[in-house]
Protein: Glyoxylate/succinic semialdehyde reductase 2, chloroplastic
Organism: Brachypodium distachyon
Amino acid sequence: MAAAFLLCPRVALPLRRGCRLVVSCSASSSDAPGGVEFQGRVGFLGLGIMGAPMASNLIKAGCDVTVWNRTKSKCDPLLSLGAKFEASPARVASSCDVTFAMLADPESAAEVACGTNGAAEGMAPGKGYVDVSTVDDVTSKLIGERITSTGASFLEAPVSGSKKPAEDGLLIFLTAGDESLYKRVTPLLDVMGKSRFFLGDVGNGAAMKLVVNMIMGSMMVSFAEGLLLSEKVGLDRNTVIEAISQGAINAPMFSLKGPSMVKASYPTAFPLKHQQKDLRLALALAESVSQPIPTAAAANELYKAAKSLGLANQDFSAVIEALKAKVQSSQQ
Ligand SMILES: NC(=O)C1=CN([C@@H]2O[C@H](COP(=O)(O)OP(=O)(O)OC[C@H]3O[C@@H](n4cnc5c(N)ncnc54)[C@H](OP(=O)(O)O)[C@@H]3O)[C@@H](O)[C@H]2O)C=CC1
Ligand SMILES: O=CCCC(=O)O
C-alpha cells in the first residue's frame, strides 16, 4: 500500500468548516474505489509518543483538529501547527464530529472516555469515538457501551507500529465495532496508517493487538538472551545481528533495536511499561479462555523485573538489563 501511495498521492482540501479530506487513491480506500472523503471536525485526546505525531499528520493533511491532553503543555506543538484546544475530553467531543483517543492503558482510556468531563458527556447521535489505545477487550466493550448509550458510534482501532511509523503515517489499524464509522473514518486512518483491518465486533481489535504484542514481547526477550549469550561466547554481537537479518528469523525490530542494545542505549519509542501492560493483558486474555502461554508469562516476569530496576519509561528493549541483573545476582 505504501508503494501505491507513491503512485497515487493523497490530496487534502481544507474547507472553511471542518475537514474535507479527499483521498483520491483507491488503493488506500479500497472499500470505496474512486475516492472517499471525510467531512467534519476531528478531536484528538492524548498527545504522548503516539498521539502527537498521529494528530500532527491529520493537521498536515488539512483536517480541522481539536486537541486535549492531561498535561496541557504537550498540546503546544500541535497548536503551533494550527490545532484548536478544548479544556476537557467532553468539550472536544461536543465540538467535533469524530474524536480519536490515544491513552496509556485501560484505566486512563476508561477515565478519559467515561469519567467526569469525559468524552461520553460530549457525545450525541451522529458523532463517533475511535479509541486507538491498547486496552483489553473488557475495557473496550465498557467504553463502547458508554459511548453508544449516548447514540454515538464506537470503533476500537489499536495500532501496530511505533513512534517512527506514527510520524511517517505508516501505522497498521486493527479495528472493530461500528462498521459505518469505520468506513466514515477510513480517509483519516489512511492519513495515519499504511493498512487497516476490520475485525467485526468490539473486542476483536483489542484481542488482535494483544496477541501481536504478546509475540513481540517474547521475541524481544529471546533476542536479548541471544545477544547476551553471543557476548559470553565471544561472538561479535553486531555480526550476530547482521546474520539474523539475512535469514528466516529476520525482523525489522532486531535490526532497528539491536545496535543500540549492544551499546546499552534505549531511546524510548515503545515504553517498557506499556509492553509489560500488554503482556499482563494478554495473560488475562489467555486465562479467560484457558489457553497456556508459558513463554509470554516468563517474558512478563522479566519486564516486571526491568520495571523494578527503574526502566519503566525506557524503550522496551531495555528488558535486556533485567537479564544482565540476573547474571550479576547469581554471581553474588
Ligand atoms: N509507543 C509505541 O510504540 C506504541 C504505543 N501503543 C499504545 O498506545 C498507547 C499510547 O502510547 P504512547 O503514546 O507510547 O504512551 P505515552 O506514555 O507517551 O502517552 C500516554 C498518554 O496517555 C495520557 N494519560 C496517561 N494517564 C492518563 C490519565 N490518567 N488521564 C488522562 N490521560 C492520561 C498521557 O497524558 P500525559 O501527557 O498527561 O502524561 C499521554 O497523553 C498505549 O496504550 C500504548 O500501549 C501502541 C502502539 C505503539
Ligand atoms: O504497541 C506497540 C507496538 C510497537 C510496534 O509495533 O513496533
